[in-house]
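Figure S4 source data
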Amino acid sequence: MSADELRTLLRAETVTHVPGVYDPVSAALAVRAGHKAVHLSGAAVSALMLGRPDLGFVHATQIADRATTLIPALGGVPLLADADTGYGTPLHAVWTALAYVRAGISGLHIEDQVSPKRCGHLAGKEVIDAGLAAAKIKALATEVPELAVIARTDAYGVNGLDDTIHRCRLFAEAGADAVFPEGVDDLGELATLHTALPGVPIVVNRSEAGGNRPVLLDSDLADVGVRLVLHPVAALLAALRAASLTYRAIADTGSAAGVDRLPWAAFTDLVGQDAALDLDARYIPGRLET
């Protein structure tokens, strides 16, 4: 998948909301809802594959493997994937990016925390030297232009807004397509960043891991340069809540009849059951002349 569509969204004058998807069915649901881009979270992959927190248990290989199952369900909608810290040096970051390209990913975001990282919303995190972080961005932009690169910095929670702006400037100069100032939620501070970096697209995070964040109007966000708003785990948390209620209902009453569920026919439609029952559709690639 080309990064062109993702870069087009970053160059737009409007805000695009990017929800997290984590399997082919959730990816299909996001596409049907009309989303123009989707996100694959490292936290989601770590939880669903390993039952572990977002503390460095998964690697680029697991993210890429999960992405390959999502791409067919997305029908060309670009996938933005979490690339953690790049999993090492600039060379490791390039290897990660190449694996992502092979998986069909359109863009990645890479952060400047010390590796192995702490979850971006936990106390005690550290950031690496700004020059080394910028070197990773430059390596990605130079060696893997097939991917849109979003440069995340966690400096705000460590050193404050001035260092965040400094790092974002370095990352933009190194070739990042957008900057991602984690923790900067105040509209005034976003405006300060936008003024310091005119023309540089900004990505913000609306993860529930960050607690209660201010809900800002899209028009206000667009005015201060925000182009993407990520919702990496909202759908996953909603699905787990629904599953929890269903399991409880079965345990308590012996039936899930009282729980709101997707109709079976909608489920089979999402997974293409009718097409799979057609032997030609099952065994002959689409658009193949026979």
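Figure S5 source data
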Amino acid sequence: MIKKLSLIFLFIFSAQLVSAQALLDWEDMIQGVNYTTPEGGAELGEFLKPTYSKQMLALEGKEISITGYFLVLEGQKDSFMLSNNPMASCFFCGNGGPETIIELYFDKRPNFFMDDLISVKGILKLNRDDPDHTYYTIEHANGFTIKM
């Protein structure tokens, strides 16, 4: 009996390792990147060069999962983001920096609404030098709404 239970446990544990994804929270994202302001200060809208933590570098190209608020950029209707804060509470004014938003690229157009609390999984990409995109991106994203 114990041998059977050990085999079942080993099988379940192995299956989880094969399909494992990193479950991240916003503190991981905030602590996962540092950027320096140029001497004399940054210009409004200037892209600050990021330096990523070892944890984030190790997760690049891997499947991650994170929960946040769904945002649709006004006027573009096909540009999506995940945020630590909802748009309704001004997701970027004083409540966080560029490390608190993630660009989302879905394989299939999502059915979420602005400020829906969602859990998303997909492949993490780190942006080192493109000022037209956020520091973090999730490609091949899919997710579900979290009902409160």
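The helical segments are 2-18, 26-31, 54-59. The domain at 21-37+46-145 is CATH 2.40.50.870 (OB fold (Dihydrolipoamide Acetyltransferase, E2P)).
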